[in-house]
Design goal:
By secondary structure, this protein is mostly helical. The chain has one domain. Strands 1-2 form a two-stranded antiparallel sheet. The protein is globular, with a radius of gyration of 19 Å.
């Protein structure tokens, strides 16, 4: 695997632009239903031998899963809604990964900023949005799929990916995706941990004192319930061909329950006020955009 580590700049002479207000990503990336999609995307990322090895060795996902998840979610929100802060966040993420290197599960040397690895981490979001979106949001039209992919490429540029690192059209993307599933993706140690229902999981520590006390008392019951739910949505919202590549099982009974859960989310979430429907960074950006339009 060839390692190419680029300077900590993006976009050459000018910084890349984040996805535009009013676009597909602007509408869906901050919606709370996206929280149900993230476990599938992360699991598909770490099913890559090099990425799984890097997360296994360097990540705090075992000791601080809640903090790690919160920081990752904040990054994703800034890439889409951060405006001038989007590029700065992309640079921060690259700096964070500069020292991550080692040997993957197949004995190959890797560096986390190698385009072959770094691009896959980003590329996994697109098929998850399409597949899970059919359940939780709506089925995208062909025009919306193309726009979503163009906007996802914009996010990739914010992360420091060059155009040569990613397929530039949907027609080029799907052969790349199928090749990665056939040749690279496997049931890595980390991927299997993320769908396990008997793994250790520390309780959340934040929040007001009454909540912390309640969690301390209820965690022996809540932990297994949460792990089962996480495994359920992780496998359920992962495209079937990706499940097969990792070796994950899915039954007709599970599919019926997933459709019921998705119907409830698809029906109820749009009825919520915006302050409850959208995550904080997205909500603030959308409000600021409305104020600017009203001037």
């Amino acid at each position: 695997m060839t390692t190419e580590i680029r300077p900590d700049t993006v976009g050459g002479r000018s910084d890349p632009e984040p996805p535009p207000p009013g676009g597909v990503l602007w509408t869906i990336a901050g919606d709370i239903r996206g929280l149900l999609m993230l476990p599938a995307a992360f699991t598909l990322q770490v099913a890559h031998p090099a990425i799984g090895a890097g997360v296994d060795q360097y990540s705090v996902f075992r000791t601080d899963p809640w903090g790690r998840g919160e920081r990752s979610l904040r990054s994703v929100q800034l890439w889409v809604y951060g405006g001038a802060d989007a590029v700065a966040e992309g640079r921060r993420v690259r700096r964070l990964h500069k020292e991550i290197q080692g040997t993957d599960t197949r004995g190959r040397r890797y560096h986390s900023l190698d385009p072959a690895c770094y691009a896959w981490v980003h590329a996994t979001g697109f098929p998850i949005y399409l597949y899970a979106g059919r359940y939780l949001l709506r089925r995208f039209t062909p025009a919306q799929e193309r726009r979503l992919y163009r906007e996802w490429l914009q996010v990739g540029r914010i992360l420091g990916l060059h155009d040569r690192d990613m397929p530039q059209t949907i027609e080029e993307y799907w052969p790349y995706y199928r090749r990665m599933l056939a040749e690279e993706i496997e049931p890595t140690k980390v991927a299997l941990e993320l769908v396990a229902t008997d793994t250790p999981l520390p309780r959340p520590e934040g929040g007001p004192l009454p909540l912390r006390l309640l969690l301390r008392l209820a965690w022996p019951v809540l932990r297994p319930a949460f792990l089962h739910f996480r495994a359920f949505v992780t496998v359920g919202y992962m495209p079937p061909e990706a499940r097969a590549a990792i070796g994950l099982k899915w039954t007709p009974s599970q599919e019926r329950r997933l459709r019921l859960l998705s119907w409830a989310a698809r029906t109820l979430v749009p009825l919520l006020p915006e302050r409850l429907r959208y995550l904080p960074i997205a909500r603030a950006a959308r409000a600021a955009h409305r104020r600017a339009d009203a001037r």
